[in-house]
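Homework help board

Subject: predicted structure for assignment chain

Our instructor gave us this sequence and asked us to write out the predicted structure in token form, then describe one feature. I got the tokens but I'm not sure how to describe them. Can anyone check?
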Amino acid sequence: MPHTLLVDTDTLAAHLDDPLWVLVDCRSDPADPEFGRTAYRAGHLPGAIFLDLDGELCGEHTGHNGRHPLPDPQRLLEVLGAAGIGPDTQVVVYDDRGGASAARLWWMLRWLGHEAVAVLDGGLPRWEADGRPLVTEVPVRRPASLTGRARDLMRVDTGFVLAGLDDPGLLLVDARVAPRYRGELEPIDPVAGRIPGAVNRPAPDNLAPDGRFRPAAELKAGFEKLMADAGARAGSEPLAPQQLVHYCGSGIAACHNLLAMEIAGLPGARLYPGSWSEWIADPARPVERG
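My token output:
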């Protein structure tokens, strides 16, 4: 039975020598594109390979498609295959910041149709807290052949968002922390604020104090309240997960909310990959603050 959402450190430790499992370190820092690779060289989980969120896992920047545009699907399949990920591979992804970067790769693999991918619950901090080692050796993986097709129903583009701004049947969910959502500060992008009508669900709210995901029932209650409140504002029944579109600064933390909804048993929400950094590339698009 493949793991498709989360794995704990015990489960991962038991499969470190399993040739059908590939462990991927995708640590990153929005302020430092070299952070992930540097941190990986300093110490990583045994057997883990590194994939660069700002390079290998990112598309070409045009100045109009956000800070982390999706890569060409065929190019992404080639990158993943070169890393040893094949059709029968169980992929486990981790980072050191609550799973935000890891959730993006989790979503991307599912976008390509690869279901056997899970996030290490608690990531590297949990691994170390459980007394497990880090290493500096870089493994050599045998290349694999990965095929797939992008499932574009999992995402929306800017035109879709713009057309739906006045649609009560569409709920935009912003995964950034509250001060950025309100437009009180913006440490990364040149414009502060949010897409009009969006509600706030900061990605860190998905985590318990120990850094692992909250229980499914807690996550479900939180997202169901968002959907019920949106329905009430529209004078209708609660919205369905399929009516939610998640975004953040550049389409990374939004995937954390998508993973949390899947854990909660609420599949079907979609990602706006370009997110805020793509939205503000055109100054004619409206911005809301407060």
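Reply (TA_rk): Your tokens look well-formed. For the description, you could write something like this. The first helix runs from residue 9 to 14. That's the kind of observation they're looking for.
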